[in-house]
């Protein structure tokens, strides 16, 4: 209602039953169906121009949005073009980039290794580890998986794969404008790494961080004035980027918890950790991850 536009919500396959890249493939197929419905069976809508599309998601859904963008950019680099051609239901079609990407509390680092997982514990409800690794975590028919793996979302070897962990992406050139709205949350360093890297390569980015607020606060604290401000930022971006993305004003702001005051922040210095150091931490986290195996003595409790 805030944007007065149509919304398509994707019910993608979930882990642990469907590991990476299942959800990303679902998003890719859904996106192709919006762009080229004439090539998809049993569709009931006309083609939607990419210039009218804004990808948006929260938490891991935001991660998937970046994964789709990077998939398109990677295909474009492979084909040495700006808009790659893919085979879709028996025809060659163009895989256009969307007009913009609006992310809410993006969950980027799957290794739980970046400093914010420790530093922001006091302002978030999310633990600094996945509870599925905890000793004595109840077993069920879907977890631990068969064959076993080290993470609910993906095999441990994929935890720093660029399509699963966008903080590991080197090249964001050609990415459409991006909005990031987040709190002072445990997963914020991953988002900051993406923003810094993309900004350094010319991507137009708006960063809005809300002081002392937790992960996906916009969905949890609907009556809060901060949520109203955040939703207005989100809606204004979605509408504005469709109307005229070239004149979208980039920049970063920290929004105060007490009075909603706005403090400008440098997109090049959102975090003190360097990209090289972040990659080392994430790779170490991946290497330390142990396969979670089923205890034959324990019966399912869920």
Automatic annotation (TrEMBL):
Residues 6-218 form the Alpha/beta hydrolase fold-3 domain. Keywords: Hydrolase. GO terms for molecular function: hydrolase activity. InterPro entries: AB_hydrolase_3, AB_hydrolase_fold, GDXG_lipolytic_enzyme. The keyword Amino-acid biosynthesis does not apply. The keyword Hydrolase applies. PANTHER family: AB HYDROLASE SUPERFAMILY PROTEIN C4A8.06C (PTHR48081), PUTATIVE (AFU_ORTHOLOGUE AFUA_3G11560)-RELATED (PTHR48081:SF25). This is Alpha/beta hydrolase fold-3 domain-containing protein. It comes from Lepraria neglecta.
